[in-house]
Amino acid sequence: MKFTKIQGAGNDFIIIDNRTGEISREMYPALAESLCARRLSVGADGLMMVERPEAGGDLKMVFYNNDGSEGEMCGNGARCISRWGFDRGLNSGELIRIETASGTVTGRRVSERQYTVKLNSPSKIDLHRDVFGLDVSYIELGVPGHPHCIVPYKLSGDNDRDALRELGRKLRWYEGFPKGANVTFCEVTGKDEVRALTFERGVEDFTLACGTGSGSTALALTLRGLVSGKNLRITVPGGDLFITVSQTDGGWDIYLTGPTNKIAEGEILDEDLTL
Questions:
Q1: 210 noted as active-site residue
Q2: What pTM was estimated for this model as a whole?
Q3: Nearest-angstrom CA–CA distance, 81 and 262
Q4: Are 9 and 213 in contact (CB under 8 A)?
Q5: What pLDDT score was predicted for residue 50?
Q6: What is the phi-psi region of residue 30: left when phi exceeds 0, alpha when psi lies from -120 to 50, beta otherwise?
Q7: Which residue among the candidates 36, 80, 186, 210 is catalytic per the annotation?
Q8: pLDDT, tens digit, for every residue of 66-103?
Q9: Which end of the chain is more exposed for a tag (fewer CB within 10 A), N or C?
Q10: Catalytic residue among 36, 74, 80, 186
Q11: CA separation for the pair 234, 214 (Å, rounded)
Q12: How far is 19 from 3, CA to CA, in rounded Å?
C-alpha cells in the first residue's frame, strides 16, 4: 500500500491514493486508527483517502481523525492534499478543486511548499454564547457544518496546560454543541496578530495546528472588531498560519495560507495491520 506523509504547520497526515477503489470504504476507519497510531505505526493526526471526484472537482478527499472517526473537513489537510495534487498534475490551471464532506474547497500553490485554501463558507455563526460562564463564539463551516468553539483566553505567560486541556475537553463535549466542537483558545497579541491553541475532536487533545479552527478564529475575532481580518497572523504551536476573511454578497470568504513539508513517500509494511 503506497502512501505519502505531509505536515502543514505541525498537523501531519497520511495520504493514500484510492482513486481505483481497491480499498473499500468500510476499511477506512480501521485503517485510520491503525496507521495513525504514533510509535506503533506511521503515526499522524489524520488519514486522507483520495477518491475519484463526483461533483466536478479534481479529486475527492475523505478525511479520518486518528481515532477512526470521520471528519467533515480539515483545513491544513486540504493544504497538504493540494500539494499532493499539484505534484501529480491534478490541478485545473492555478487552482485545485477538492471535494470534501462539507462541500468543495479550492487550493492554490503560492510556492512549492506554501499553499492557500479557500475554506468552506460559514453556515452558522453564533458570535456570543455563554457557555460555562465564558463568552464564546460558535461557528460551523460548510454543509454539513464543521463545528468550532472559539474562546478568547489569555495564553501568554504561565498557565496550567492540564487545566486548560480539561476545559477544552469539557467544551468539546458541551451538550449545546450537537456534534461536539473543536475548541480554539485564542489571544490577540498585537495588531492583526493572534496566538491560538486548539483542542481537536477525534484527536481528543491539543494539536500543533488546526486550519479550520484558525479560520473560524479569524472570522470570530474580525466580527468582534478585534482584528481587521486582512492577512491575520495566527501563531500556533506548529508555526504561523495566515488568514484573510472578506465579506461577500453570499456571506464570508475565508482564505488559509501556510507551509507544508513532505515527510515521506513509500510503502506501508506494517505487519500488525489487519483489515
A1: yes
A2: 0.93
A3: 11
A4: no
A5: 98
A6: alpha
A7: 210
A8: 999 999 999 999 999 999 999 999 999 999 999 999 99
A9: C
A10: 74
A11: 7
A12: 13
- Report whether 125 contacts 104 (CB < 8 A): no
Residue type, 200: E
Rounded to the nearest 10 degrees, the angle between the axes of helix 211-223 and helix 75-87 is 130
Locate 75 and state its grid cell. 483545513
- Under a CB-based contact definition with an 8 Å cutoff, are residues 48 and 81 in contact? yes
Please say if 80 is a catalytic residue. no
pLDDT digits (tens, 9 = 90+) for 135-175: 999 999 999 899 999 999 999 777 788 999 999 999 999 99
Alpha-carbon distance 126 to 223, whole Å? 11
For the purposes of burial, counting CB atoms within 10 Å of the CB of 199, is it exposed (0-12), middle (13-18) or buried (19 or more)? buried
The answer to whether the CB of 232 falls within 8 A of the CB of 256 is: no
Q: Which amino acid is at 264?
A: A
Does a cis peptide bond (omega within 30 degrees of 0) precede residue 144?
yes
Closest C-alpha to 37, from 62, 8, 68, 76: 68
Cα-trace Rg, the chain: 18
